[in-house]
TrEMBL record:
GO molecular function, one term: electron transfer activity
Domain Glutaredoxin intervals: 2-58
Name this protein carries in UniProt: Glutaredoxin-like protein NrdH
InterPro entries: GlrX_NrdH (IPR011909), Glutaredoxin (IPR002109), Grx-like_ET (IPR051548), Thioredoxin-like_sf (IPR036249)
The keyword rRNA-binding appears for this protein: no
Function: Electron transport system for the ribonucleotide reductase system NrdEF.
Protein family: Belongs to the glutaredoxin family.
Keyword Disulfide bond part of the UniProt annotation: yes
Organism encoding this protein: Alloscardovia omnicolens F0580
Phylogenetic lineage: Bacteria, Bacillati, Actinomycetota, Actinomycetes, Bifidobacteriales
């Protein structure tokens, strides 16, 4: 299960979602502007950039095509 925590009008968020779709990975999107608890949780963990992607045991922020590809390979294996 992949969850993308995004913000409106976020270039990196949109790129992440496009890449996941291109790789055939289903994901759930949660807007951080509408979920203050999630926003505070990620800030407390040191994430200062959107999107925050949670994929199983891995969590990262920003557009990371290398990690997106790795997740897709794991899911589609």
């Amino acid at each position: 299960m992949v969850t993308v925590y995004s913000k409106s009008h976020c270039v990196q968020c949109n790129a992440t979602k496009r890449q996941l779709a291109k790789l055939g990975v289903e994901y759930t999107e949660i807007n951080l502007e509408q979920d203050a608890d999630a926003l505070e949780k990620f800030k407390a963990q040191g994430f200062m950039q959107a999107p925050v992607v949670v994929a199983g045991e891995e969590t990262w922020s920003g557009y990371r095509p290398d990690l997106l590809k790795k997740v897709a390979q794991t899911i589609n294996a």
